[in-house]
């Protein structure tokens, strides 16, 4: 039977997905057959495996663990479509579209699916690194939460609560999470991690000591800020990341056209892997004049995306600028609305690195983009694993695992 550990967080966006990938690489490099697992994921950022669709986060974590991604690693995906509706993907297959109330009525059925998926992995791997969803202390959702403490209890996994110090208030967030977790599950919490710290971590010593005194739970480490190139899972994190200005020190500016319910985010960090490329989200067609390339992404709700697209003077602007346009999946359909000829590539396989490379090779060879995103991703997982080795008490982590 596999040994397991869970990375949970005080909120979304604290770095759970990245830290899970780092632990996967850490254990895999020490000879353990390792797999990631997330019982339920709400995300539009998904991809294909040989057996069906799962979140891109678990695909990347599987690669970090040096194993193949399979639907058992992410048995439940909810793809939000707006208007209180989400598409349910179960074990890689679309089941239907449901309201939140309808989905919660299915929670026991979905939890059984998640448990069966976990058992399948546990029979095949030595170590399973679980990732929680959002926060385990959302008191309005506790009775319906199948991804955090209930799943950890089923798996027999010790839980590490992660907080993002860059947002401020990390100690309050960590203490508040412990206090709000259901009492029956508190013994599962074995440690804290403080993530995204900038500066001299010794100034946190009194705070970490007080936190341990107040909760009886050790602070296992303080991880430094790491400007990684890997994908963000949460759409808010992604749009925030790419809405900054272009990096004027890079000659190639890629504009990513924002859409309601846009999906297929994995192409965007792929552009960042190229040293001379600066991607940036653009909100209207008037913002594309400074771009060398416009990317029109795929969308989960094509009706709303089309309404947004057609409400803007796309034909006039695109005919006035002389730049190549890359359409991904539904982005092709949107461009057909505006009768603008473009280079397109099907996103059926969601192999976005291949899409980018093919585009560069066929349409803009003068850019001579030679970086290898796959190699860069692999290198960065190694960097994250090294951060654990250097900044976290790994002996305690291994004791939690045992």
Would you summarize the structure shown here?
Helices cover 37% and strands 24% of the residues.
Strand elements, count: 19
Q: How large a portion of the residues is in β-strands, by DSSP E?
A: 15-25%
Judged by helices, strands and strand pairing, the structural class is: alpha/beta
Q: Determine the fraction of residues in helical runs and give it as a percent range.
A: 25-40%
List keywords for this structure.
402 residues; alpha/beta; Rossmann fold; 2 domains; 6-stranded parallel beta sheet; 5-stranded parallel beta sheet; 15 helices; 24% strand; globular
Describe the model.
It is a single chain. This protein is 37% helix and 24% strand. With 402 residues, the chain is of the alpha/beta class. The chain has 2 domains: 3-225 and 378-401, Rossmann fold (3-Layer(aba) Sandwich); 235-371, Rossmann fold. A 6-stranded parallel β-sheet has the order 2-9-1-10-11-12, sandwiched between helices. Strands 15-13-16-18-19 form a 5-stranded parallel β-sheet, sandwiched between helices. It has a 4-stranded mixed β-sheet with strand order 3-6-7-8. α1 runs parallel beside α2 (56-64) and α1 (16-28) crosses α14. The longest helix has 19 residues, at 373-391.
Structural topology:
Blueprint: E1 3-9, H1 16-28, E2 34-37, E3 40-42, E4 46-49, E5 52-55, H2 56-64, E6 76-82, E7 85-90, E8 93-99, H3 100-104, H4 107-122, E9 127-131, H5 149-155, E10 158-164, H6 170-180, E11 189-197, H7 205-215, E12 219-224, H8 235-242, E13 252-257, E14 262-263, H9 267-272, E15 277-282, E16 293-296, E17 298-299, H10 302-310, H11 314-320, E18 325-328, H12 330-337, E19 343-345, H13 352-363, H14 373-391, H15 394-401
Parallel strand pairs: 1-9, 1-10, 2-9, 3-6, 10-11, 11-12, 13-15, 13-16, 16-18, 18-19
Antiparallel strand pairs: 4-5, 6-7, 7-8, 14-17
Helix pairs in contact: 1-2, 1-14
